[in-house]
Write a structure and sequence with these properties.
Chain lengths: 147, 143
């Protein structure tokens, strides 16, 4: 089981408690599609992803960004069993969506950048460490059921 | 994944906006790296003080960003432009090149916190590619 310090727990609850999922989700996903364009392979049915402007204004990308953040919320609310919480989602990403698990880290990095931009100097090194630890656990859990 | 003309233009445009804060960016990025990735502290065991914002960390952050500035100026030929720095990292400092990625990530985070409006997705991809290309040039002399 993952050990969380009081600081880490409080930091994660604080960041996500104050977060506007409907803003951050679309921002993180669209950034991922721009910064790591090969991730677009999973969104063939999403229409125009031709350039950064198109991606930023694409309603399907925005909608899916919200879905992703709501999925992340489940880990926020179950920090003591992220592995169990994501077992089904892991199977889904492997068996149905066929997502290369290396992509989870790419999206996690984009989410880190988006949150850093929103928080400014409040995103201290300690906060960054806690946030990245949380995302690393999420990434690991989502990759766990792949075979 | 080499740098296109568009990437180079984007890097230079972003650098123009952020370069006067280079010392602060370097100090913050290095401080962050040491606390978020504690294994990186192993390279600095000779410093009296590794805490964020300490004198050695600030001085070294400034030096690192001097290297980034050099890379920007040699953006059309990073391999040759960073050859001397590569030799120092390879033979003197012997920094495992995996750490270049770690420091690059910390630089990106700091730029995002300090310049949220300028660090658009397009600026982000250009800077990420540039730092990766610089890291590759820095690894040139390793083996």
């Amino acid at each position: 089981m993952v050990e969380w310090s009081d600081f880490e727990r409080a930091t994660i609850q604080d960041i996500f408690g104050k977060m506007d999922y409907d803003d951050v989700g679309p921002a993180a996903l669209s950034r991922c599609l721009v910064v790591y364009p090969w991730t677009q392979r999973y969104f063939g049915g999403f229409g125009n992803l031709y350039n950064a402007a198109a991606i930023a204004s694409n309603p399907m990308v925005a909608a899916h960004g919200k879905v992703v953040l709501r999925g992340l919320d489940r880990a926020v609310r179950n920090m003591d069993d992220i592995k169990g919480t994501y077992a089904e989602l892991s199977v889904l990403h492997s068996e149905k969506l066929h997502v290369d698990p290396d992509n989870f880290k790419l999206l996690a990095d984009c989410l880190t950048i988006v949150v850093a931009a929103r928080m400014g100097k409040d995103f201290t090194g300690e906060v960054q460490a806690a946030f990245q630890k949380f995302l690393a656990v999420v990434v690991s859990s989502l990759g766990r059921q792949y075979h | 994944m080499s740098l296109t003309d568009k990437d180079k233009a984007a890097v230079k445009a972003l650098w123009a906006k952020i370069s006067k804060s280079a010392d602060a960016i370097g100090a913050d990025a290095l401080s962050r790296m040491l606390s978020v990735y504690p294994q990186t502290k192993t390279y600095f065991s000779h410093w009296p003080d590794l805490s964020p914002g300490s004198a050695p960390v600030k001085a070294h952050g400034k030096k690192v960003m001097g290297g980034v500035a050099l890379a920007v100026s040699k953006i059309d030929d990073l391999t040759n432009g960073l050859l001397e720095l590569s030799e120092r990292h390879a033979f003197q400092m012997r920094v495992d090149p995996a750490n270049f990625k770690i420091l690059s990530h910390c630089i990106l985070v700091v730029v995002a916190t300090m310049f949220p409006k300028d660090f658009t997705p397009e600026a982000h991809v250009a800077l990420d590619k540039f730092l990766s290309a610089a890291a590759l040039a820095l690894s040139e002399r390793y083996r």
